[in-house]
Specification:
With 492 residues, the protein is of the alpha/beta class. It has a single domain, classed as Alpha-Beta Complex (Amidase signature (AS) enzymes). It is 38% helix and 14% strand. It has 16 helices and 13 strands. Strands 1-3-2-6-8-7-12-13-11-9-10 form an eleven-stranded mixed β-sheet. A two-stranded antiparallel ribbon has the order 4-5. Helix 8 links the parallel strand 9 and strand 10. Helix 5 runs parallel beside helix 6 and helix 9 crosses helix 11. The structure holds glutamine (GLN). The site of glutamine has 13 residues, from loops.
Length: 492
């Protein structure tokens, strides 16, 4: 039986500070042994061999300096799309086989500055394109609540690892829901910050006007701690905003009095799994009980969101992925001339979903179609943003489901990309509007799969949605539950 170790940032810090016998090397060794046991079944870490922990152990002071930084001695799992110096960054794609990052992403540098140890490459959909983590060149991630089901995507490895207790916390990325949806599918907390709140420097770009880095954690308080460390202006990313970073943990309390929360009618329409609606409605009642006023609001352009997102995201992806030509990064197939080599490299090493997106994106940008698709999508994006501006005049935040269903069965949607895309309806809107969104566990289906409550807030109002999520979490005990295929189960 493996020894126990704390499963939240707060508890890990406490263990380091309060109990000298829980020193850092033994905590890390226990974490490594839990990953060794769980990873073969879940596949949440790519290429896990435990060597990283040995390396981390070699590089750290065996006598940690408690109190030195808010994350001193805390290992944080990193999604395979973020660059960590001297580590591979595959983006779960074969085209980046052999690539080693020469630098740290700004978020990783900021974690290190806070004392954290970046640990492990977390599995994901190839180049963050997908909703199930089945588009990974390293195989799908399995859901720790039921291994026949997906973990969600694209940050499926991050969510599964945190839910299973084999990552204390993780950094994921969210372009259209990739933090919030897997967090909901796996029963953990996921925060997509507002566009510009967190630097994207060192994040391999998928869709640059939509991408954001954010925390995947067990608790809302941990999400606040991580955001605190990574947020703020970065001269290396001109889209990062030069506005002060508030104290996110100071806002956390147990009451919601004085807050007005909106329910967008379009997010409670037909087509949502009744079990999801029931759990989210119960969460809304709980927020009312905690003192919030609940009102009905409308976001009329929601129905165009999936189409708009899949035009803008693919257009940007087709441009961003042009850099993978076999010359500058990773794998390469030699050809008769440079063009032949580019073509062979891309045809051989990109997976099918990435190719589909590049083709779609190239099409919507091509002359003759640019105005009908790309330009029109940009106009609809403005209407979607204005919808949110209007409702945020009436209320402080919105409560919605994260996804219309619980986690799909493995393979259930892989042959039907359109159905897969439609499942993103409740998450893509926040990215299109640039606002922030939090996913918090709010119950289980009758078959034992987690359900997530989404809390959407105006741009840069992360403190408000964290406050709501925390108060709700404290009033319920969903976050305290452990999945049957996680560390707890294996140890007991
Ligand atoms: N599921 C969405 C997509 O496939 C979102 C992905 C993401 O947020 N990275 O594009």
């Amino acid at each position: 039986m493996a020894a126990r170790f704390p499963s939240t940032i707060a508890a890990w810090r406490q263990a380091l500070e309060a109990k000298p016998r829980h020193n850092l090397p033994s905590l890390l060794a226990n974490l490594a042994s839990a990953i060794d046991r769980c990873n073969p079944g879940l596949n949440c870490y790519i290429d896990w061999d435990g060597g990283e922990v040995q390396k981390a152990l070699g590089g750290i002071d065996p006598e940690p300096r408690p109190g030195a930084g808010p994350l001193e001695g805390v290992p944080i799992g990193i999604k395979d799309v973020l660059n960590v110096k001297d580590q591979p960054c595959h983006c779960a794609s074969r085209i980046l086989e052999g690539y080693i990052s020469p630098y740290d992403a700004t978020v990783v540098a900021r974690l290190r500055r806070a004392g954290a140890i970046p640990l492990g490459r977390l599995n994901m959909d190839e180049f963050a394109m997908g909703s199930t983590n089945e588009n990974s060149a390293y195989g799908p991630v399995r859901n720790p609540w039921n291994k026949d089901h997906v973990a969600g995507g694209s940050s499926g490895g991050a969510a599964a690892a945190v839910a299973a207790g084999v990552a204390v916390a993780a950094l994921g990325t969210d372009t259209g829901g990739s933090i919030r949806q897997p967090a909901a599918f796996c029963g953990c907390v996921g925060l997509k910050p507002s566009y510009g709140r967190v630097s994207r420097y060192g994040l391999t770009a998928f869709a640059s006007s939509l991408d954001q880095v954010g925390p995947v954690t067990r608790t809302v308080a941990d999400a606040a701690t991580l955001l605190q460390c990574i947020a703020g202006r970065d001269p290396l990313d001109t889209t990062s905003l030069d506005v002060p970073v508030p104290d996110y943990t100071a806002a956390l309390g147990s009451e919601l009095g004085g807050l007005k929360l909106g329910l967008p009618a379009e997010y409670f329409a037909d087509g949502v799994d009744p079990e999801v609606t029931r759990a989210v409605r119960a969460a809304i009642d709980e927020c009312r009980r905690l003192g919030a006023e609940i009102i009905e609001v409308q976001l009329p352009h929601t129905r165009y969101a999936v189409a708009t997102y899949y035009i803008i995201a693919t257009a940007e992806a087709s441009a961003n992925l042009a850099r993978f030509d076999g010359v500058r990064y990773g794998a390469r197939v030699a050809g008769q001339d440079p063009l032949d080599s580019y073509q062979r490299t891309r045809a051989t090493y990109f997976g099918p979903e990435v190719k589909r997106r590049i083709i779609l994106g190239t099409y919507v940008l091509s002359s003759g179609y640019h105005d009908a698709y790309y330009l029109r999508a940009q106009k609809v994006r403005t209407l979607i943003r204005q919808d949110f501006e209007r409702v945020f005049d009436q209320c402080d935040a919105l409560l919605t489901p994260v996804a219309p269903t619980t986690a799909y069965r493995l393979g259930e949607r892989i042959d039907d990309p359109l159905q897969m895309y439609l499942g993103d309806i409740f998450t893509v809107t926040a990215n299109l509007a640039g606002i922030c969104g939090l996913s918090v566990p709010c119950g289980f289906s009758t078959t034992g799969l987690p359900i997530g409550l989404q809390i959407l807030g105006p741009a840069l109002r992360e403190a408000t949605i964290l406050q709501i999520g925390h108060a709700y979490e404290q009033a319920t005990n969903w976050s305290a539950q452990h999945p049957p295929h996680g560390r707890e189960a294996i140890q007991s």
